[in-house]
Amino acid sequence: MAGVEVYCGIRSWGASCTVAWTSRHRQDRFLQIYVCGALFRKVDRDVLLKLETQAAIFSTGLKALEWTFIKGPLRRYEPPKRSQDTPIERRLRASTLFLDAFDLVLSARGIGWSWSSDPFPQESTQPPSIACALAETILKLAVFDGFQYIIQYLFPSTNHPKGGSIFDPNLTLLPRTALAAFCGICGGIWLYALIDFLHHVFTLAGRAIFRQPASVWPPAFRQPWMSTSMQEFWGSRWHQFMRRLFIVFGAHPGGELFGKPGALMGAFAVSALVHYIGLWGVGNGTEFATAGGFFFLMGVGAIMEGGFTRTTGLKVRGWLGWVWTMVWTTLWGTLMIDGWARHGAFATDFLPSRFRPGKVVVDTIIALSSRR
Length: 372
Prior knowledge:
It contains eleven helices and no strands. It has helices at 3-25, 47-68, 94-106, 130-154, 173-209, 230-237, 243-280, 288-291, 293-312, 318-342, 357-370.
């Protein structure tokens, strides 16, 4: 790691501890804005690391901005017991202050914190064992690697740092569109598997090393491919890591100005901004039309569903709702994945070239099919 990265990391971590301390004590709350000083720092590392770091630093700055003007202190709760209904606040100790600071800044859903509307969400199924969680982690890693390799195999230019399009100019309109849509679906699965893999890694660390209960590590996704409406897809089945930020900085002001449609578009506008800045962190520029426009159109789709319900009295659901949801997200998602590909988001060496389980599976399928 370069010296400048060490410096930035120490500075950001110092800001994180400052946030945790001032959030509990309410004095000198302006010090929280110190986190925003790291807002536009670029990190010269792996493509995915750069993209994720840029989005994470920006979201941390938004958190600090919210905490600066919050009326009450942020409280940490103890994991609830079976017969416990009301969360119990954890006592402030010098021995846990460092870990509380770490958890406060990195906690995207507010698990165990008073700022969350649901500090300990209840799951309908029993949490998996650590062995099962480990197996699923390995599976998600293979899925992520496999679908990334499919895109790189079909379009080798996407594996170049400068990027390349998933729309093949040598094909006619229909085959070109179909192939791009296929790559768009692969890109969606790639992104889902990547996020879920990282979540499983941290879950394993929390449960196996730090002996945390499973209640503080609820699932990141709830089978998004089963969504039968846009509102179900984005409201509950896709990950909710930035839900709080979208509500505070988008839905609340948008709702005050334009009602429910304004709330929806405001939330998706903040999401668009986060992803627009995240793509900029890759180092090859960015573009709002694809990186941000996709999320605006997801908001438009959710508003269209509300209009359909008001007009017909019927909710968007069932197999027709599923078709609508998959078509709308795939249509605009393909353009977003193309924008990412053209800016080098898929030119990453996440795994060593000699250890790519997904690539081995894809190459084996290609070799077997070519013999027929």
